[in-house]
Amino acid sequence: MKLLLPTIFLFGMSGILLAHSGATGVVKTRMDAMVEVSEATKVLGAMSKSGVIDPLIVQAATDTLMEKAAHAPELFEQRDLSSPTEALPAIWENYDDFSAKFDAMGRAARMLRESADDRETFDAAFRALGKTCQSCHEIYRLKK
Ligand code: HEC
Known about the structure:
- The protein contains 6 helices and no strands.
- It is mainly α.
- The chain has a single domain, classed as Up-down Bundle (Four Helix Bundle (Hemerythrin (Met), subunit A)), CATH 1.20.120.10.
- The chain has helices at 4-19, 25-50, 55-75, 90-93, 95-113, 119-140.
- It is 75% helix and 0% strand.
- Bound molecules: heme C.
- The site of heme C has 23 residues, from α2, α5 and α6.
């Protein structure tokens, strides 16, 4: 893990630079927030894969996820579809449903946090978290 985490971190930072050139204002803010979500998820995924589950890292990563889940609906309140956003107009047609999907992500992160002492539960909770990402992206994020 000592080697793995910085690698994930560096990889993630280059991802921010590549994906967000040109993004400004609220679009940039919410894209950056999603990248933080993604980084935290990668860290948790690496632990699920390796079976080396560090409770402190789980705590930090799920803190990030729960915090982002709580604040993300605010970041998307303003309808802004400026390039290079991947957000779809459907967000503002079903804003309540969209926000509820962030709640589901927050709940899944909490479950994951509470399962750090058992590999099998942890893996299942990680898969459940992944489904909450998917279920939102499927409807509300542009497919590449
Ligand atoms: C409630 C909806 C929702 C949930 C839940 C959600 N996302 Fe997203 N995500 C979005 C939207 C919308 C965008 C596009 C934002 C934009 O481009 O303005 C996005 C963008 C992203 C991006 C691209 C960021 C960039 O600009 O480079 C990543 C990576 C990502 N999400 C990962 C995740 C992961 C991992 C999870 C689950 C832990 C997750 N998302 C959960 C809605 C969601």
